[in-house]
């Protein structure tokens, strides 16, 4: 029996070491399996001393340190009121149910009848919503929805891929009759004509990348990637470009984007009837992009007023970034993810869902979020071009303030 006691003591020492190094259920199952023969011998013993060792060990192996998971969490979600549903998942229940129906018919949810039963479209979508609306780690999501961590990550990639398939239909440039509608709505703000959109950039905070980390340090000395977006007067995103390192200035991100190349090749198609987009002082003045005059302390009263009209009209893009990060709080900081393609795809999926909410009149009912990461301050990488004769800014200024 002394040998049995020694075995139990060694086993308990092994359990204590496993607690310090890895508290996962897999480790406990292995310990439970490896100790089965020893515990059988102990149960057959009538020694009080043996019981003193047996009972704490059995209590630990059966219930003491197992991970606590929530069973049937979807039932808890279904029991929430509409207000509670939106507070937790950041979109209303009607919008979620519509998207779940679309997901079921999309072919992105496995439907095989062999092996382990596939996760439903409803569980997959609710899990993705919880992930993007909050900042919980994958392990907590695994416990909440009672599935493995690998399954959580697989679901997130699957739903993100499904959202990306909707990119061209949800995020699209104004065309035909929509051009006039967008311009008219912008004109109502401050009387600036022919505005087709407002452009700006924001930073998405990330952990230190494993490759070329210095390229991702922005002017505020943290790691980030750039998100460039053009929005209309309703804060609907009409063009997106994401993934450039955070050290790049807005003007350089613009020049590397497909929008700049397309506008350079065929301006008339993208900007019919001399329409243009508005940017802040970080952007150059181009034939299709109007930025404010650089304030060098010698601006005329008309130029000061012109700058105010530009900034007031383009405020929709700053509000769009604020609502994007205020609604989908994951976008503020990817604190445990280092795979850049996954992060970029998640940000784009959030932008698509942002547009979907606007299209479905799913109003933003949360506190206003001020996005301090909007790139309004110049750094050493930025180059501001002076206005040249005949550029769009000069033409616009003369239209608003005729001689």
Quick overview:
The chain is an alpha/beta fold and 403 residues long.
Provide a descriptive summary of the structure in words.
By secondary structure, this protein is an alpha/beta fold. About 50% of the residues lie in helices and about 10% in strands. It is built from 19 helices and six strands. Strands 1, 2, 3, 4, 5 and 6 form a six-stranded mixed β-sheet that branches. Helix 10 crosses helix 18. It is elongated. About 35% of the residues are buried.
What is the average of the pLDDT values?
Answer: 84
Low-pLDDT runs of 5+ residues are 7-47, 376-389
Distance between the terminal alpha carbons, to the nearest Å?
Answer: 107 Å
Q: Could you tell me the radius of gyration in angstroms? A: 28 Å
Compute the number of strand runs: 6
Helix vs. strand class = alpha/beta
Proportion of β residues?
5-15%
| Biggest sheet character | 6 strands, mixed
